[in-house]
TrEMBL record:
InterPro entries: 6-blade_b-propeller_TolB-like, Glc/Sorbosone_DH, Quinoprot_gluc/sorb_DH_b-prop. This is Glucose/sorbosone dehydrogenase family protein. It comes from Thauera aromatica K172. Residues 50-379 form the Glucose/Sorbosone dehydrogenase domain. Pfam families: GSDH.
Length: 383
């Protein structure tokens, strides 16, 4: 595990690693060739016309299920055609950063059509991050048997920091990442609150018997880890099966974490971030013996969103690398890992000027991106 000292050596001037683009980009072109450190890549536009796309999931027949933050879910064909919105979704609180968020196929989707999705659920007091399960009728463009299986136990006012990514573990349990709702950051350290947590639930919403806080008095049994700010990236290590997440820092201090059960990840007591406007210190400092140090951190913030381990054949030189999208810095980060440590960072595709909301590996072994700023789905092919 990387020490806090090692993390402090994170290069802050990532611009030195920005990729060189082989063609000028005054306007968007459907196919753009980009040179990276290890490969020439063709960035292809697959689809356009989406509004604030947030997440994508690949269906068994090659089509793509996409969420749009205003509260719509669509099917996208291989040639880029968008379906009408899928009917039957619950009402969402589509304000600020809230709305319809992540979507994931159930482990046996081909047999039962089960999907899960996260969203900002309106309540009488405000809103909260919730997760629902449903049966997806692809022919009828409708979801059936919608059932909310989880909701944060607090529903404060405000429009920021909902999380939320969904990842199925190998045992069929579901990890859900949850934001701290911004003004309520101190609750990230409280084990009687879902704010600023990763939770682990069964697909029926119950807490697995081996969750780390299941037997602790006063703690919520769903909690897997705590001390998080706003987690918008999550992926399983294809070799170890362990969960990795990343989260937004305030002003600096975006974190990449190996997210283990029962661990405290520090926010807002231990952080590399600073207060907005004043730049003053937050909490006690950047390290403490009982707090898990990030495996990587970004200062200045890149605003990470979406994450995927690459295991495909299209880019063999990237196998085992971790890819992270960035909103503020409008790029994709490639991280090389060795024994759970980041040993190299490359910043790619910055010249495209696209807010990358999600990163996924497709069944074709290629990387797929959601361009939030342009409402597009992009694919990376070998040039």
């Amino acid at each position: 595990m990387a020490t806090a000292k090692a993390v402090r050596r994170t290069p802050l001037l990532g611009a030195l690693l920005l990729t060189a683009v082989l063609v000028p980009l005054p306007v968007w072109a459907r196919d753009v060739i980009v040179r990276t450190e290890t490969a020439s890549v063709k960035v292809s536009e697959v689809a356009r016309g989406l509004e604030n796309p947030w997440s994508l999931a690949f269906l068994p027949d090659g089509r793509i299920l996409v969420t749009e933050r205003p509260g719509r879910m669509r099917i996208v064909t291989a040639d880029g055609a968008l379906s009408a919105p899928i009917a039957g979704l619950p009402e969402v609180h589509a304000q600020g950063q809230g709305g319809l968020l992540d979507v994931a196929l159930g482990p046996r989707f081909a047999e039962d059509g089960l999907i899960v999705f996260s969203y900002a659920e309106p309540t009488a007091r405000g809103a909260r991050t919730a997760v629902a399960r449903a049966r997806l009728d692809l022919d009828g463009l409708r979801v059936h048997a919608v059932q909310r299986i989880f909701a944060q136990n607090e529903d404060p006012s405000g429009s920021h920091h909902w999380g939320s990514r969904l990842v199925f573990a190998p045992d069929g349990s579901l990890f859900v990442t949850l934001g701290d709702r911004y003004h309520f950051r101190d609750r990230a350290q409280a084990l009687d609150s879902h704010l600023g947590k990763v939770v682990r639930i069964a697909v029926d919403g119950s807490a697995p018997a081996d969750n780390p806080f299941r037997a602790r008095a006063g703690a919520l049994p769903e909690i897997w880890s705590y001390g998080h700010r706003n987690l918008q990236g999550a992926a399983l290590d294809p070799q170890s099966g362990e969960l990795w997440t990343h989260e937004h820092g305030p002003q600096g201090g975006d974190e990449l974490n190996l997210t283990r059960g029962g661990r405290n990840y520090g926010w807002p007591v231990i952080t590399y971030g600073r207060e907005y406007v004043t730049g003053s210190k937050i909490g006690e400092g950047t390290e403490r013996t009982d707090v898990e140090a990030p495996r990587w951190q970004w200062t200045p913030s890149i605003a990470p969103s979406g994450m995927a381990f690459y295991t495909g054949e299209a880019f063999p030189q990237w196998r085992g690398n971790l890819f992270v999208g960035a909103l503020k810095h409008q790029l994709v980060v490639r991280l090389v890992l060795e024994e759970g440590k980041v040993v190299h960072e490359e910043r790619m595709l910055s010249a495209l000027g696209r807010r990358i909301r999600d990163v996924r590996q497709g069944p074709d072994g290629k990387l797929w991106l959601l361009d939030e700023s342009g409402g597009r789905i992009l694919r990376l092919d070998p040039a």
